[in-house]
TrEMBL record:
Protein name stated in the entry: Mediator of RNA polymerase II transcription subunit 30
InterPro entries, alphabetized: Mediator_Med30_met
Family designation: Belongs to the Mediator complex subunit 30 family.
Gene Ontology MF terms in the entry: transcription coregulator activity
Segments forming a coiled coil: 150-177
GO biological process, one term: positive regulation of DNA-templated transcription
Keywords: Activator, Coiled coil, Nucleus, Transcription, Transcription regulation
Subcellular location(s) of the protein: Nucleus
This protein's record includes keyword Ribonucleoprotein: no
GO CC entries: mediator complex
């Protein structure tokens, strides 16, 4: 869980948002490109920006699903005349969704850049979740654990091995049973 933002800092940040930024759909903590950060905006944490980024990604997914639903409902022009008004209505909806998607991706990019800027002084850089093709995957650092944790891990691994053996035996028995049933059905014909 993240720590809640101080109400005074949030209110100050919200009151300092210029109208152009409010219309562009940018969150209160993200200045428009080229704008100098203000004192009140520095109090907004990267965690808050990440939460806004998560909501933005959810909005992007929702908009994309709506676009797919509109295109699925659209009838192909295979000789059937469709009303021009319905076509224009769907086309307008698609254009609006695409415009909103463009704005959401810009907002997400600004959030990302702001978070990177705010966390640039951290010691570790976040590792890529999906490495590029041909890129070497760096080894994951494993911290030393206490002996109790290591023993518990060994016990869990042993239980998993036992369960895997039991499942393998059951699968072999089921395979043999199915083989016998199929053989009997074949002989019956």
């Amino acid at each position: 869980m993240s720590a809640p933002l101080p109400q005074k800092a949030l209110a100050t940040a919200l009151s300092t948002v210029p109208p152009s930024q409010a219309q562009s759909g940018l969150p209160p903590g993200v200045p428009p490109p080229g704008a100098a950060p203000q004192g009140a905006l520095r109090e907004i944490s990267p965690v808050y920006l990440c939460r806004i980024g998560q909501e933005t990604v959810q909005d992007i997914v929702t908009r994309t699903m709506e676009i797919f639903q509109i295109t699925r409902a659209t009838q192909l022009p295979n000789g059937v005349t469709q009303s021009q008004a319905a076509y224009q209505d769907r086309f307008g909806k698609l254009q609006e969704h695409l415009r909103q998607l463009t704005l959401l991706f810009r907002k997400l990019r600004l959030l990302y850049e702001r978070c990177v800027e705010m966390t640039s002084d951290l010691q570790e850089t976040p590792a890529e979740l999906v490495p590029y093709v041909g890129e070497e995957v760096s080894a994951v650092r494993v911290e030393l654990c206490s002996p109790a944790v290591l023993q518990e891990r060994q016990e869990v691994l042993e239980k998993v091995r036992q369960k895997n053996q039991e499942m393998k035996m059951l699968m072999d028995q089921m395979r043999n049973l199915l083989w016998d049933v199929n053989a009997m059905l074949t002989m019956r014909k």
